[in-house]
Amino acid sequence: MEIKVDTGTVRIETNRLVLRGFREDDLADFYDYAKVDGVGECAGCSHHKSIEESRRILSMFIEGRNVFAIVDKKSGKVIGSVGIKDPDEVTVSRFPDVNIKEIGFVLAKDFWGKGLMTEAVKAVICYCFDELNLDAVSAGHFVGNDPSRRVIEKCGFEFFADTVFHSESLNADYPTKDYIVWNKRKNIK
């Protein structure tokens, strides 16, 4: 069953954040955090080298309608993103006949270590279960990316596989840990 994600029509509020679809006027904020060395690399892509690169990627986010902008309520700035996509082949083969999506996340370096990404990911998991009616959500992190591992664990994910992610933009392979969290209301696991 095809599950349609449309972040362009959704607004999620948490204590400190607003999650919504990206807009064209987010370009300056997006470039501001995406150009920082080490931010994109944690997600398997290089940091942005120009505002034009950010503009191209922002356009893909807007058209794809499957990536939430994370907005800091205090400053009003976009400080990161949480994307929802179809899972990789390893996940699909491991969990056939399960309605599942994979999430990925990026946060501006200035906001690391404050619990904001855990807050955002928990909200997106609730959206996936309550609105998309998914059976499960998967996520992964590169080996050695302890901040992402901690977010994943704090959000209730359970480890299920060691895999390798190939980043075309970085032309490198990354050992990866994959996790899953089940929709407990469906009692599937």
3D architecture notes:
- With 189 residues, the chain is an alpha+beta fold.
- The chain has a single domain, classed as 3-Layer(aba) Sandwich (Aminopeptidase), CATH 3.40.630.30.
- 28% of the residues lie in helices and 31% in strands.
- It is built from five helices and eight strands; from the N terminus they run ββααββαβαβαββ.
- The protein has helices at residues 27-34, 51-64, 89-94, 116-130, 146-154; strands at 11-13, 17-21, 67-72, 78-85, 100-107, 136-142, 158-167, 172-182.
- An eight-stranded mixed beta sheet has the order 1-2-3-4-5-6-8-7, sandwiched between helices.
- Helix 1 crosses helix 2.
- The longest helix is centred in the middle third of the chain and has 15 residues, at 116-130.
- The protein is globular, with a radius of gyration of 16 Å.
- It starts with 10 loop residues before the first strand and ends in a 7-residue tail after the last strand.
SSE blueprint and pairings:
Elements: E1 11-13, E2 17-21, H1 27-34, H2 51-64, E3 67-72, E4 78-85, H3 89-94, E5 100-107, H4 116-130, E6 136-142, H5 146-154, E7 158-167, E8 172-182
Parallel strand pairs: 5-6
Antiparallel strand pairs: 1-2, 2-3, 3-4, 4-5, 6-8, 7-8
Helix pairs in contact: 1-2
